[in-house]
Amino acid sequence: MNRFFAFVKKEFLHIFRDYRTMIILFGMPIAQLLIFGFVISNEIRDAHIAILDHSKDEHTQKITEKLVSSGYFILSDELKNENEIDACFRAGNAKLALVFEPGFGRLLEKTGKANLQIIADASDPNSAEMLSNYTQAIISAYIKDLNMAGYGNKIIRAETRMQFNPGLKGVFMFVPGTMALILMLISAMMTSITIAREKETGTMEVLLISPLRPIQIILGKVAPYLLLSFINAIVILALGFFVFGLPIRGSLILLLAESMLFILMALSLGILISTVAKSQQVAMFISMFALLLPTMLLSGFIFPIENMPVILQYLSAIMPPRWFIVIIKNIMLKGTGFLFVWKETLILTLMAIAFVVVSVKKFKLRLE
Amino acid sequence: MKIAQIHNLSKSYSDTQALKNISLEVEQGELFGLIGPDGAGKTTLFRILVSLLLPDKGEVFLLGKDVKKDFKELRQHIGYMPGRFSLYEDLTVEENLYFYATVFGTTIQENYHLIKDIYQQIEMFKTRRAGKLSGGMKQKLALCCALIHNPEVIVLDEPTTGVDAVSRKEFWDMLKSLKKQGITVLVSTPYMDEASMCDRVALIQKGELLSVAPPAQIESEFEGDLFEIKADNLHSLKNKLNEKYGEHSAHLFGQSIHFSNPNQEISEQELSDLIEQEGFHPSSIKKIKAGIEDCFMHLMTAKKGIE
Questions:
Q1: Does any CB of chain B come closer than 8 Å to the CB of residue A225?
Q2: Which of A98, A110, A117, B272 has the fewest CB within 10 Å, making it most exposed?
Q3: Chain A to chain B Cβ contacts (< 8 Å)
Q4: Using the 8-state DSSP alphabet, how is residue A202 labeled?
Q5: Regions of chain B where pLDDT drops below 50
Q6: In the prediction, which pLDDT does B143 show?
Q7: Helical H segments across B127-212, by residue range
Q8: Taking CB atoms and an 8 Å limit, are A202 and B90 in contact across chains?
Q9: How close is the nearest chain A Cα to the Cα of B23, in Å?
Q10: What's the confidence (pLDDT) of residue B10?
C-alpha cells in the first residue's frame, strides 16, 4: 500500500509542478463555461419584443412601460392581431411577443384575475427561456407592487408558449453538455498523456522493472485526477448554479455520485488510450479526435439525438457523454431520483469496468 | 555461481537483426563491460537481460531466473539504469530517491549504507529538481535510485555517455566500490578506453560478440605489430595505407594513425621509408602496444574477412 501512496504522491507533484496541466485542469472549464454564459447574458440585453395589446388600458400600458424600462427589452412592434406574431418572428423583428387579453385591466380590477400570453421564438431555446423568465419576473414584480399598494389579491396568469420548438429541447443543455465535455476531455486526456509521458521519458522502463503491479500503476495514475476532476465537476456545477441560475432540483448527492462515476469512466478510457499511444502527442491526438468531436456532435449536446440518422443514433449509444447528459438533465432539471436514471448509470458503470479490464489486460509488462 | 547465462540468443526488430546468436556468461561479483559502438545491440541485450524485452530465440537467465517466465520475481532483485536519464525531472533529488525506495518496498534509511558514498556527493542538491542537475550528477542520482533496494546485480546501460571526463572517472570508481560490496555490475559503454576498468569485457559489433575476455588478455592477443604514425595529411595517408595493405590496416586515432599489417613483419625504419616513398613526411613512427580499440578494429576486420 505504501508503494501505491508513494506513486499517488508523485503524481500529485507532477500535476502541481506543471503549470500547463494546472491551466488545463482548472482554467479551461471555467473559461469555457463563462464564455457560454457571456454569450447568453449578452443576448438578454436589448432583446426586441412585440406587444399585442387587445385591451389598451392603464395596466397594460404600465406593464409595457416596465418591460421597456427594465433595460432588457426594446419594443420593436405594436401588433394588431395574432397573425402578425408569426410574421414578426419570421422576419426576426422580435424574439418575444406579449399578448394581453381583451379587457385585461377591467378583469384584473373586477375579478382580480387577468390573463396574458408570452410567446417566445424558441428556435433559439436558451434565449427563449431566458426572455420568458425575465418577462414573467417583471410581470410578477408588477403584481406584487399592485398588491402591496392595497389593491387586494390580484393575479395575472401568464401563459407561456414556445413557438417553433414547443418542447424547448436544448434548454440548459449547455451546462450539462459542457460539463460532460469538459470532464470527458480533461479526465481522458490528462491520464492518457501522463502515462504516455512515462513512456516517452523512459521512466516507464524503471517502473516496469519495479515491483509495482499494473493495476497499481493504473490506479495510481487515476487517483489524483479523480480527485481533481471531481473538484472540477463541483466548480462547474457551482458556476451553473450561481452564475447561470441552473436549478438543481434533484438530489445533490446523487448528482455528485453520478459525476464521480462519469469521471471514473473517462479516466479509465484515458488509461485505455495510453496503452495504445506511444507518445504524449499521439495520446493528445487520440483524445481530441476520438473524444472531443464525437462528444460534441453525437452526444446530443449540440444536435438532438432524435433527429440523427439511425446509424448515428446507434453510434451515439456508445458515446458515454450521451448517457451522462441524460442523467444530469434528469437530476438537475427534472429533479428525478435514481430510479429514473438507473439504466444510464448501469451503462456508464459497465463502460468503466470494461475500460479498466481491457487496460489492465493491454498494459504491457515489457517494452516493444 | 553464474549471475547471467545467455545461450544462443537472437533478437530481430522488424527490419534489422539486433542480436545474432549470442552466448555469454557473467560470474558473480564481476564488473563486466559490454563494449561496442552505437547500434551494436548493447541496449537490446541489456533489455532482454532485465526482462524488458523478449528474446526471439535462445535462453536467458539472470540470477538463475528465466527472463521469459520468472520475470516478476527477477525484477525484485535487480537494479537497472536505462540509457536515457529516466528519473522524474520535475521531482527533486530527494523525492526521486524516496519514490524509488518506496516503490521497491524499502526505505532510504534501510539501505543508506549502499548509496552513502555516492549520495553524499549530491546531497547538497537534494532539494533541487532532478532536471536541473548536471549530466554527471544525474547519473549519480540514477545510480542511487537503482541501488536503493539492495539488488544482487545492477545493469547499467551506457551510464557514462554524455558525461564529462572527470565524472566518468568518478563513476567508474563508484562501480568498482560497488563490486567490492559484492554487487555484480554489468555495464555497457561505447568508450573503448573504459574497457580497462572492467574485470572482463565483451566486445560487440552489429549484434555479434567479437570477443569475451579480460581486457588485458584481449590486448595481448593482438596479432602482429602495431605502429603509431604521426604526420601531416593524416587522412590521405590513411587512405593510401589502406589501399596498399588492405582495408582496415590503418585507422585514424585522433592526431595519429594506428597501422598494423599482420601479413608481413616490418620494422619502424622500413615503414618510414615506405611512407616517404609515397610522398608523405611522418614526424614520428613508433611501435606501440595495442589497446582495446585496436583489438576491436582488428577483430571487426577479421570477422568481415570470414564473412
A1: no
A2: A110
A3: 76
A4: T
A5: none
A6: 92
A7: 135-147, 165-180
A8: no
A9: 22
A10: 93
User: From the CA atom positions of chain B, what is the Rg in Å?
Assistant: 22
Which of A201, A210, A367 lies at the smallest CB-CB distance from B103? A210
Rounded Cα distance between B37 and B284, Å, is: 29
H or E segment and range at residue A97:
strand A96-100
Q: Quick one: pLDDT at residue A37?
A: 61
Interface check B47 vs A, CB under 8 A: yes
d(CA A356, CA A185): 17
Positive or negative: CA dihedral A176, A177, A178, A184 = positive
Residue B272 grid coordinates: 618510414
Residues B131, A96: Cα–Cα separation, whole Å: 62
Distance separating alpha carbons of residues B187 and B157, to the nearest angstrom: 6
Say which amino acid occupies B21. Answer: N
How far is Cα B3 from Cα A202, in angstroms, rounded to an integer? 26
- Render each residue's pLDDT in chain A as its tens digit; 368 residues: 788 889 999 999 988 888 888 887 888 878 877 776 666 544 566 788 888 888 888 888 888 888 888 878 888 888 888 888 888 887 778 888 888 888 888 888 888 888 888 888 777 676 777 788 888 888 888 888 878 776 667 667 776 666 554 444 444 667 778 788 888 888 888 888 888 888 888 888 888 888 888 888 888 888 999 998 999 889 888 888 887 777 788 888 999 999 999 999 999 898 888 888 888 888 888 888 878 888 878 887 767 677 778 888 888 888 888 899 888 888 887 778 888 889 999 999 999 999 988 988 888 877 77
User: Residue A68 CA to chain centroid, in angstroms?
Assistant: 31
Distance between B99 CA and the closest CA of chain A, angstroms: 6
Partners of A273 in beta bridges: none
Interface-testing mutation among A209, A212, A213, A363, with chain B (most B C-beta atoms within 10 A): A209
Under 8 Å between Cβ of A120 and A96: yes
Rounded to the nearest angstrom, the minimum Cα separation between A225 and chain B is 18
For chain A, domains (ranges, CATH) are 47-163 (3.40.1710.10), 171-367 (no CATH)
Are A43 and A120 in contact, with CB atoms under 8 Å apart? no
Q: What ipTM score was computed for the predicted complex, to two decimals?
A: 0.81
Tell me the C-alpha distance between A109 and A146, whole Å: 11
A238: buried, middle or exposed (CB in 10 Å: 19+, 13-18, 0-12)? exposed
Cell of B83: 540509457
Cell digits of residue B16: 534489422
Query: Which string of b and e fits A166-175 if b means at least 16 CB within 10 Å?
Result: eebebbbbbb
Contact B97, B141 (CB under 8 A): yes
Phi-psi region of A170 (alpha: psi -120 to 50; beta: other; left: phi over 0): left
Contacts of A2 in chain B (CB under 8 A): 102, 105
pLDDT of residue B274: 81
Task: Kindly determine whether residue B100 and residue A2, on different chains, have CB atoms separated by under 8 Å.
Answer: no
Containing A188, the helix (H) or strand (E) segment is helix A174-201
**A170: which 3 cell numbers?**
436544448
Among candidate residues B95, B117, B202, B100, the one with its CA nearest the CA of residue B151: B100
Contact between B219 and B291 (Cβ < 8 Å): yes
Q: How close does chain A come to B62, measured CA to CA in Å?
A: 13
pLDDT given for residue A169 in this prediction:
43
Q: Do A203 and B88 touch (CB under 8 A)?
A: yes
- Residue B75 burial (CB < 10 Å; 0-12/13-18/19+)? buried
Residues of A in contact with B51 (CB under 8 A): 209, 366
For residue B213 the three cell numbers come to: 575476455
CB contact under 8 A, A202 and B86: yes
Res A40: pLDDT: 52
Query: Cα–Cα distance between A333 and A321 in angstroms, integer?
Result: 17
